[in-house]
């Protein structure tokens, strides 16, 4: 990476004389590496998580419970992005918040590395909290490196940053997954801690290159507000402690006492947040109309992520027992499937960026609604494709690895059709009052989708076998129907969107 830092051969003090990172502010190298290592730790641990939960040498749970835990964990990461942004806005500022989040994530992975069940779940909670704090703020800090939205380098900087995300996500299963599956589960989790430690160390060393704006607390709390917030927090903490203490001491506590409330929170909070924004009297008629249109995109995205995120749970668990995990006779760990999506993202993202521009020049670029509909239809098609390896496995044979690769490929194309468009339309349709908060609302679509999966798979609630032919076909049909419905009502949604296209 050192070779990417160059120094212009001009005298100091002139514009552009400072060291750069591929022509971008040097602080981008710090944030690129921080995010790369954080994603390395996150995706490495996530690749191992469902496999460890069902393994005889792990926690030896059934697939339904493992899927529920995995889904609740992922939903919490995205749910906690909202309070993560609030902590930076009101207490610490983005720079300090990211430093604290890195430390929390590292401690969480260390807890996962301990061969104790209680410590494992504490670790999951810490990683979710830390990831939520970091996710909400590190992208904001990338934006701070540039001179406003009109800086010509801005889009390129975010593209480089996006490469860092996917580079970490690609390498992680190959390294952490291999060690976890083939050597020792807890050594794998420990490697994730090492990855986050490296990311945190270079962040602290390179933070001097970040923008001074990243140190600013945008809307700091007054002493009175801090006292009131702390008091309310302690009251709710005491209530939870007393409630779970009574449940535990009376011998009634089970894992579902934690899972089910968290699942319900993941479903209720998104509804409450969007309803509150929609009812806000400070919004004018045009803004309320755009929020109503945004609900369509939000629900569609929740359906998409409900299916898409099963690539790390349902598909992974299927591969663990019912797939021939080898290519040309060369076997590989199940966790390696989780590297397929990021490498395809890196390969296909530039192609899609070029394609949209090429179509736009000819006046043929699909609208936002058509792109969204396509993403839903594609993720549905991926689960229709899943029916083939399921049928092979039901016949007593192991499905070829390329069936799963094909499923991940179709899902990746769907992601590139829907996810970047969703981020863009979120910023365009956000009411002025909620301009900085709407990105957190977009993340809540992931929370809602994964919470539905958790509710369905939990043996104490839905108890649905998500890798059964009937239910996979039902999910696939739901996604396709949702995509067609969004397309059929495109004129109504377009009217609600007003001047946004």
Automatic annotation (TrEMBL):
Gene Ontology CC entries for this record: plasma membrane
Subcellular location(s) of the protein: Cell membrane; Membrane
Pfam families: PTR2
MF (Gene Ontology): dipeptide transmembrane transporter activity; peptide:proton symporter activity; tripeptide transmembrane transporter activity
Principal cellular location given in the protein's record: membrane
SUPFAM superfamilies the record matches: MFS general substrate transporter
InterPro entries with a match to the protein in the record: Dipep/tripep_permease (IPR005279), MFS_trans_sf (IPR036259), MFS_Transporters (IPR050171), POT_fam (IPR000109), PTR2_symporter_CS (IPR018456)
Topology versus the membrane: Multi-pass membrane protein
Positions of transmembrane segments: 43-61, 67-86, 98-118, 124-146, 158-179, 185-205, 234-253, 259-279, 291-308, 336-357, 369-388, 400-418, 439-457, 469-489
Alphabetical list of PANTHER family matching this protein: PROTON-DEPENDENT OLIGOPEPTIDE FAMILY TRANSPORT PROTEIN (PTHR23517:SF15), RESISTANCE PROTEIN MDTM, PUTATIVE-RELATED-RELATED (PTHR23517)
Name the UniProt record assigns to this protein: Peptide transporter
Organism of provenance: Streptomyces collinus (strain DSM 40733 / Tue 365)
Lineage: Bacteria, Bacillati, Actinomycetota, Actinomycetes, Kitasatosporales
């Amino acid at each position: 990476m050192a070779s990417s830092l160059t120094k212009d051969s001009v005298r100091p003090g002139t514009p552009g004389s400072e060291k750069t990172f591929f022509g971008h502010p040097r602080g981008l190298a710090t944030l690129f590496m921080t995010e790369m290592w954080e994603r390395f730790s996150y995706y490495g641990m996530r690749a191992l998580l469902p496999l460890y939960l069902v393994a005889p040498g792990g926690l030896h749970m059934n697939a339904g419970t493992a899927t529920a835990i995995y889904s609740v964990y992922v939903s919490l990461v995205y749910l906690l992005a909202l309070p993560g942004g609030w902590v930076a806005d009101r207490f610490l500022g983005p720079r300090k918040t990211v430093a604290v989040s890195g430390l929390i994530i590292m401690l969480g992975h260390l807890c996962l590395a301990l061969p104790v069940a209680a410590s494992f779940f504490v670790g999951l909670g810490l990683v979710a909290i830390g990831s939520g704090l970091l996710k909400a703020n590190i992208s904001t800090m990338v934006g701070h490196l540039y001179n406003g939205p009109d800086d010509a380098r801005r889009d390129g900087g975010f593209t480089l940053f996006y490469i860092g995300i996917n580079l970490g996500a690609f390498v992680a299963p190959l390294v952490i997954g291999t060690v976890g599956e083939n050597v020792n589960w807890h050594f794998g989790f420990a490697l994730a801690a090492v990855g986050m430690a490296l990311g945190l160390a270079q962040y602290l060393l390179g933070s001097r290159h970040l923008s001074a704006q990243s140190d600013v607390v945008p809307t700091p709390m007054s002493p009175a507000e801090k006292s009131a917030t702390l008091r309310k927090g302690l009251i709710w903490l005491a209530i939870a402690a007393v409630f779970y203490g009574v449940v535990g001491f009376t011998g009634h506590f089970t894992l579902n006492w934690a899972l089910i409330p968290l699942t319900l929170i993941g479903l209720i909070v998104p509804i409450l947040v969007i309803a509150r924004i929609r009812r806000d009297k400070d919004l004018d008629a045009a803004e309320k109309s755009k929020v109503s249109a945004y609900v369509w995109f939000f629900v569609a995205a929740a359906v998409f992520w409900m299916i898409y995120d099963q690539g790390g749970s349902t598909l992974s668990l299927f591969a663990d027992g019912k797939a021939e995990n080898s290519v040309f006779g060369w076997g590989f760990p199940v966790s390696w499937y989780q590297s397929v999506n990021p490498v395809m993202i890196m390969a296909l993202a530039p192609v899609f960026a070029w394609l949209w521009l090429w179509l736009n020049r000819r006046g043929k670029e699909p609208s936002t609604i058509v792109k969204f509909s396509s993403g839903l239809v594609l993720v549905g098609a991926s689960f229709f494709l899943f029916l083939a390896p399921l049928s092979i496995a039901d016949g007593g044979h192991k499905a070829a690895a390329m069936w799963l690769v094909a499923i991940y490929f179709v899902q990746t194309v769907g992601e590139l059709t829907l996810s970047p468009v969703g981020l863009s339309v979120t910023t365009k349709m956000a009411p002025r009052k909620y301009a900085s908060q709407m990105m957190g609302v977009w993340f809540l679509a992931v929370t809602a989708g994964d919470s539905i999966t958790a509710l369905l798979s939990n043996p104490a609630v839905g108890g649905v076998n998500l890798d059964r032919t009937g239910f996979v076909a039902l999910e696939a049909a739901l996604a396709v129907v949702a995509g067609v419905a969004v397309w059929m009502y495109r004129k109504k949604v377009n009217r609600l969107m007003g001047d946004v296209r």
